[in-house]
């Protein structure tokens, strides 16, 4: 599914229901007519001239952008800027807001929102979730992450058809989601390695101390 998400900082969120994975028959195509599984309230696009992806920064909370009292739908991408799978997905995800102007699209760096990654089961990136209001409804499970498979996923879940004239452009390769890898440190992995090393050292010292307390072990050592 991609590289490990790496995360460092945490923030408190309300408890949400677990995400239901997309059924197996949806993962390999859209053969046959299927009833939409999520009844999305399409937003009013009057007065909106530019449909683009919004990327949350480290200080922004995802829950502030999801209205639990509404039935509108939002597609949220968890990514990391140093993940090559996230980078290859970027131009395709950047083009989605133009294909589905009545839906909302958000992206967040999983390494900056570790609590959300844990809450929604983001064990690898990129990870794409479809929300209705503040409730996660489905997870994108395709290994082929292209504009077409993303459009099929949204159509299968919501019944909303994509605009047929939308394609990936040069601007989509430029942003807002970066398609070029950036060097970074996986702080969660580094912390995990340090913690494991410290635990091994502690266990070794502790075991040695216990061995000296066992009758007969001390004399055997002296001999």
Automatic annotation (TrEMBL):
<keyword id="KW-0812">Transmembrane</keyword>
<keyword id="KW-0472">Membrane</keyword>
<feature type="transmembrane region" description="Helical">
    <location>
        <begin position="187"/>
        <end position="205"/>
    </location>
</feature>
<dbReference type="InterPro" id="IPR036249">
    <property type="entry name" value="Thioredoxin-like_sf"/>
</dbReference>
<feature type="region of interest" description="Disordered">
    <location>
        <begin position="1"/>
        <end position="37"/>
    </location>
</feature>
<protein>
    <submittedName>
        <fullName>TXD15 protein</fullName>
    </submittedName>
</protein>
<dbReference type="GO" id="GO:0005929">
    <property type="term" value="C:cilium"/>
</dbReference>
<dbReference type="Pfam" id="PF00085">
    <property type="entry name" value="Thioredoxin"/>
</dbReference>
<dbReference type="InterPro" id="IPR013766">
    <property type="entry name" value="Thioredoxin_domain"/>
</dbReference>
<keyword id="KW-1133">Transmembrane helix</keyword>
<dbReference type="InterPro" id="IPR042418">
    <property type="entry name" value="TXNDC15"/>
</dbReference>
<feature type="domain" description="Thioredoxin">
    <location>
        <begin position="16"/>
        <end position="159"/>
    </location>
</feature>
<dbReference type="GO" id="GO:0060271">
    <property type="term" value="P:cilium assembly"/>
</dbReference>
């Amino acid at each position: 599914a991609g590289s490990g998400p790496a995360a460092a900082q945490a923030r408190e969120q309300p408890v949400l229901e677990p995400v239901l994975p997309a059924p197996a028959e949806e993962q390999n195509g859209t053969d046959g007519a299927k009833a939409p599984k999520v009844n999305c309230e399409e937003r009013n696009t009057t007065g909106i001239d530019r449909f683009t992806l919004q990327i949350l920064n480290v200080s922004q909370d995802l829950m502030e952008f999801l209205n639990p009292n509404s039935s509108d739908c939002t597609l949220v991408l968890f990514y990391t800027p140093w993940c090559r799978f996230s980078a290859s997905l970027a131009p395709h995800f950047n083009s989605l807001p133009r294909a589905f102007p009545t839906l909302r699209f958000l992206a967040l760096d999983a390494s900056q929102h570790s609590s959300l990654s844990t809450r929604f089961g983001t064990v690898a990136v990129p990870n794409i979730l479809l929300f209705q209001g503040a409730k996660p409804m489905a997870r994108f499970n395709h290994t082929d992450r292209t504009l077409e498979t993303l459009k099929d996923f949204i159509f299968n879940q919501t019944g909303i058809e994509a605009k047929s004239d939308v394609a990936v452009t040069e601007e989509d390769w430029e942003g807002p989601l970066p398609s070029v890898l950036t060097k970074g440190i996986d702080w969660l992995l580094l912390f995990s390695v340090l913690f494991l090393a410290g635990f091994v050292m502690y266990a070794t010292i502790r075991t040695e101390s216990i061995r000296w307390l066992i009758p007969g072990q001390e004399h055997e050592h002296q001999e």
